[in-house]
Amino acid sequence: MTQIKEVRKHHVGPLWVGAISNLTSDALLYLARLLFQTSTIPDLRVSVHRYARGNSRLNPHPGFSSRADEVAALNTILQGKPFAVTEFGYCDGKRPSSTWWKRLFGISDRWSERTVAQMATEEWAFWKQQGAQFATWY
Predict the structure, then answer these.
(1) Which of 22, 60, 70, 125 is least crowded, fewest Cβ atoms below 10 Å from its Cβ?
(2) How far apart are alpha carbons 116 and 96 in whole angstroms?
(3) Which residues of the chain register pLDDT less than 50?
């Protein structure tokens, strides 16, 4: 909190703060507390990361019915403050298999570069639809 106020003294314009590393209930509660403590800082903007749950990026986190529901909870906390997604991404390297028999034999799955690019394109569209100021593919 003190560091944010100190930076604000020397920074003109919007101040983007890396606030939470996922859109889970615990992370959103932390964000609500942070924003309460920083409510007097003008032009404070929030950035979030959103990591996939399980083997599908489409799975909502526990307590939410959809990914859009996660973002709705975020927007309720933000009360109109802009937000951005400063990290999302998918790797074309080895990842844990989604089937028990592949795990049993140590076989990993991979997404092709084309699949990863398609998922990134869909993510950008999702975040644009949800009102993010920008989204960064990492």
Answers:
(1) 125
(2) 16
(3) none
